[in-house]
Amino acid sequence: MTTTLITGGTVVNTTGRVEADVLIDGETIVGVLPPGSELLGSDLKRTVDQIVDATGKYVLPGGVDAHTHMEMPFGGTFASDTFETGTRAAAYGGTTTIIDFITQYPDQRVLDQYNLWHEKAAGNCAIDYGFHQILSDIQPESLTAMDELVDEGVTSFKLFMAYKGVFLSDDGQIFRAFQKGAENGALMMMHAENGSVIDVLVEQALGRGETGPINHGLTRPWQLEEEATHRAIMLADVADCPLYFVHVTAKQAAMQIAEARGRGANVFGETCPQYLYFSLEDQLGAHSAERGEFEGAKWVASPPLRSKHEGHQDFLWKALRTNEIQMVSTDHCPFCMKEQKELGADDFSKIPNGFGTVEHRLDLLYQGVVDGKITLERFVEITSTTPARMFGLYGKKGVIQPGADGDIVVYDPNGHTTISADTAHMDIDYSAWEGFEIDGKVDTVVSRGKIVVQNDQYLGRKGDGQYLKRGTSQYLT
Ligand code: URP
Ligand code: ZN
Ligand code: ZN
Q1: With a 6 A CB cut-off, is 354 part of the ligand 1 pocket?
Q2: Mean pLDDT, to the nearest integer, of 256-263?
Q3: Cα angle vertex 20, ends 16, 24, to 5°?
Q4: Domains, the chain, ranges and CATH?
Q5: Which protein family is it in (predicted)?
């Protein structure tokens, strides 16, 4: 077993920062010690196998990205990152745990899909991984499967109010699943957009010959996210179950969540870097001479980017600061332009939906610290500690303390990162984040005691990552 000492850095937890050395024995943190510990002169020095010099740097708990879609079958193709490429890219960016969504379509059995996801991930992941389960068109068999999955450590279930005929469940189906969640302690997750109305708007836009990517956003207005968010909160109220909103984009949806929390409901929200940084206007202005209007396909995801003039982005940053929104995940679901996004060249509704961001989440959120939008401790909270607590991993993940897994990011506040598809490691032929400048840099990444990234080199191996059988959420009363 390797013993690792991370020395000279500033250890940051949600509770504050302290100059300390971190000792990892094998896979587990065994000590947070006084800096430059005199202990180094004695027994400890003899037993330490590797030292990571973190002088002048932050020592952070490894990132937990609770929303990824590796190899997801979607939009007539598959998300371009496999578990192998996607988790390696995540490691480069300081994420040491992902929670990926098992995808179930209406003609598939939930438990078959659960087994399939294990087959896809086992032996391929660079970092630890857990699963949520997507439930489409919920039938009695899916409700039974929910009990079995909770026993397997899949303790959260995503339902959809959009994508009719693909993922959508109607209100009655959603309500039954909510009742099951209330019974078995699972955390219910919601994609909140009013799919029936979106389908009408899409049909009408296409009928008018409006086929370009920008129409994706124009046919999914914020009112339809707000309405669905409100409706889901009311259904959860009646079912008395906790509810977590994925990828919140609209200020008004965030306000619905804040209002519910204000009256004591177990309602939570995540947002994603793309909704903090990009707007509908960015997408509109992204036309290139070469690709023309279709360049905007790079920024097609659901829910869509929101208009800058309506203030959604600023509101979401504020909501993160004030805990109206609890955390940030990536919704990593990359599709190449070539042969994937291009499927929608003549019809925006056929553009596969999603961004590739798993590698950049920590950098993009750290920039929020530099820009004074969140504190360093809050950065740790929204990228690591809260996701771990929300999804039953805390103690092992999300904190630097004895007994936790040795998942550490040494982050250099004096370093610099320029994001580019040329240097990123995700399997995607462009970067929506091209040219973003970050005033910081991932220096070293340790996953369960093993140095997996250092000096921009990947030192891990596929299969290092283990399945995480999760407990239930710590936030539920
Ligand atoms: O556009 C998105 N968000 N793609 C991934 C699937 C989902 O709804 O999370
Ligand atoms: Zn979704
Ligand atoms: Zn997603």
Answers
A1: yes
A2: 98
A3: 110
A4: 62-387 (3.20.20.140)
A5: Belongs to the metallo-dependent hydrolases superfamily. Hydantoinase/dihydropyrimidinase family.
